[in-house]
Amino acid sequence: MRVEIARLSLTLLLCAWIVLPAFAVGLKINASLESLRIEIKSDSAPPLATLVNAAIDDVIAMPVPREKVVLQMRLQILLEDTKAFAAAQRRKAAHYAVKIWRAAGFTDEPGLSSASDQESLERP
Predict the structure, then answer these.
(1) Residues in CB range of 18: below 8 A, 6 or more apart
(2) For the whole model, what pTM was predicted?
C-alpha cells in the first residue's frame, strides 16, 4: 500500500512539474494577447478593432500549445475580412496579425502576406 501511494505521489508530482510550467506560459501568452486588445481599442477605427479583438478572442480560446496552421488560418481570415478596407486599415490589420502571431509564441514568419513581419511591424 505504501509503495502504491509513493508511486501515485511521484506520478502526481511529475505531472505537476510538466503541466504547471506549460500552464504558466499559456497565461503569459494570453496576457500578451490581452494587452493587444487594449492597444487596439484606443488606437484604431471601430470596425478594425472589432475584427482584431474577435481574432484575439479566438486565439485565446485555442488550446495550448496552439497549432501553427490553425493560428495561420485564423489570422488569414482576419486579413480577408479587411480586404474591403482602405489601404491604411489593411496595413494595420497586417500589423496586428503579426503582433498576435508573435504574442501567441511564434517567432518565425507567418507567411500571411507578401510583406515581411518587419515591414508589417514598422508601418502600421
Answers:
(1) none
(2) 0.71
DSSP H helices, 1-124, are: 2-43, 46-61, 68-81, 87-103, 117-122
Q: Cα separation of 116 and 124, whole Å?
A: 13
CB 53 within 8 A of CB 38: no
pLDDT in tens, 82-103: 999 999 999 999 999 999 999 8
All residues at 6 or more sequence positions from 45 whose CB lies less than 8 Å from its CB, including other chains: 89
State the Cα–Cα distance between residues 59 and 39, nearest whole angstrom: 17
CA distance 103 to 61: 14
30, 60 Cβ separation under 8 angstroms: yes
**Set of cell numbers at residue 66:** 496552439
